[in-house]
């Protein structure tokens, strides 16, 4: 009720599922699988901006909390992706 639509887009040849056996063709799993694919668009975000560093899964929750105007979860270990914002 508090957030908008969440869209997952998979290009042809990729698989997405809840099991551990389905991965995108370029998947990198193991300890380095903590990277995330994150696409954001909307007010307050830079247009056509690409981060110059990897996005880690732990960065997603603090970033979404910032977008929603709520405090980052206390247990969050990641960093808000401030460089993607216009303000």
What does this structure look like?
- By secondary structure, the protein is mostly loops.
- The protein has a domain at 31-84.
- It has one helix and no strands.
- It has one helix at residues 57-68.
- The protein is globular.
- The model has no long low-confidence stretch (mean pLDDT 77).
Which features characterize this protein?
87 residues; 1 helix; 14% helix; little secondary structure
Shape: globular
Individual helix count: 1
Order of helices and strands: H
Structural class: little secondary structure
List the uncertain runs: none
Helices and strands in order, then pairings?
Elements: H1 57-68
What does this entry show, briefly?
The protein has 87 residues and is mostly loops. Helices cover 14% and strands 0% of the residues.
């Amino acid at each position: 009720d508090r957030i908008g639509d969440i869209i997952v887009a998979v290009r042809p040849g990729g698989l997405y599922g809840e099991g551990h056996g389905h991965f995108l063709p370029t998947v990198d799993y193991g300890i380095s699988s903590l990277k995330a694919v994150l696409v954001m668009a909307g007010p307050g975000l830079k247009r056509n901006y690409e981060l110059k560093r990897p996005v880690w899964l732990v960065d997603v929750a603090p970033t979404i909390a910032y977008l929603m105007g709520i405090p980052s979860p206390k247990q969050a270990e990641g960093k808000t992706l401030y460089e993607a914002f216009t303000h």
